[in-house]
């Protein structure tokens, strides 16, 4: 609500009515912010995050490793929604960091090309394939903070490593630093870095 200039303390029904009005108003260039601000993907029991205010910045997938003995569900999550979350994150990242080359400019001027090839901005000749400025900017400031996706998984280390070892796509994302991978441990968290798991606790500080 604050991003849209709405009072978050307003009655629920009043906020909902304003959001619905904006969403159905064709004159609104920013009816909603969609996925702006996305920064993390959590694969864990909902109990892990339900007490936290994630401010709409995290993709959540309720997952319980106790009911996934063969790791097949985890494999699906790491090779499908995790990869898609990375695609979404990186499109926002690229369109924010280099909007002139990797964004698509002003969506009020867009002309769609070939159905799904991209758009022209007004009468410009360059094919634009990124996100529009309205998806990233409120007219005075950027509303998306470009961060590489942080993935946090609650699953046995061996199960996570098995998926990484089996799928080149996942391994390449990690080896080349396209996303950050963490897992819950009995003592806190551990970060996957250069093929190794490095423990992290509140007292140890962030890993180098």
Descriptive account of the structure:
- With 208 residues, the chain is an alpha/beta fold.
- It folds into two domains: 1-30, no CATH class; 33-196, no CATH class.
- The chain is built from six helices and nine strands.
- The chain has helices at 12-23, 72-79, 81-97, 99-102, 157-166, 168-175; strands at 40-44, 58-62, 110-113, 118-121, 127-128, 150-153, 180-185, 188-193, 196-200.
- The strands form two sheets. It has a six-stranded mixed beta sheet with strand order 2-1-6-7-8-9, with no helix packed on it.
- Strand 7 and strand 8 form a beta hairpin.
- It is globular.
- The protein starts with 11 loop residues before the first helix and ends in an 8-residue tail after the last strand.
- 23% of the residues are buried.
Quickly describe the structure.
With 208 residues, the chain is of the alpha/beta class.
- Helicity range: 25-40%
Mean pLDDT: 91
Strand order of the largest sheet: 2-1-6-7-8-9
Contiguous low-pLDDT stretches (5 residues minimum) are: none
Labels describing this entry:
single chain; 28% helix; 9 strands; three-stranded antiparallel sheet; 20% strand; 208 residues
Layout of SSEs?
Layout lengths: L11 H12 L16 E5 L13 E5 L9 H8 L1 H17 L1 H4 L7 E4 L4 E4 L5 E2 L21 E4 L3 H10 L1 H8 L4 E6 L2 E6 L2 E5 L8
Parallel strand pairs: 1-2, 1-6, 6-7
Antiparallel strand pairs: 3-4, 4-5, 7-8, 8-9
GO molecular function: metal ion binding
Organism: Pseudoduganella ginsengisoli
InterPro entries: DabA
């Amino acid at each position: 609500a604050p991003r849209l200039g709405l009072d978050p303390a307003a009655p629920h029904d009043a906020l909902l009515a304003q959001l619905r009005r904006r969403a159905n108003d064709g004159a609104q260039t920013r009816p909603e912010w969609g996925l702006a601000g996305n920064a993390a993907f959590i694969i864990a029991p909902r109990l892990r995050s339900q007490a936290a205010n994630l401010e709409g910045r995290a993709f959540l997938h309720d997952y319980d490793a106790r009911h996934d003995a063969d790791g097949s569900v985890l494999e699906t999550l790491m090779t499908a929604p995790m990869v898609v979350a990375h695609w979404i994150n990186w499109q926002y990242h690229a369109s924010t960091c280099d909007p002139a080359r990797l964004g698509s400019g002003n969506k009020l001027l867009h002309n769609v090309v070939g159905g799904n090839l991209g758009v022209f901005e007004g009468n410009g000749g360059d094919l634009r394939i990124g996100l529009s400025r309205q998806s990233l900017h409120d007219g005075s400031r950027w509303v998306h903070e470009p961060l590489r996706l942080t993935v946090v998984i609650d699953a046995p280390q061996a199960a996570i490593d098995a998926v990484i070892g089996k799928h080149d796509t996942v391994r390449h994302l990690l080896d080349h630093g396209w996303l950050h991978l963490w897992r819950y441990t009995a003592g806190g968290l551990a970060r996957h870095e250069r093929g190794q798991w490095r423990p992290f606790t509140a007292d140890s500080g962030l890993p180098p």
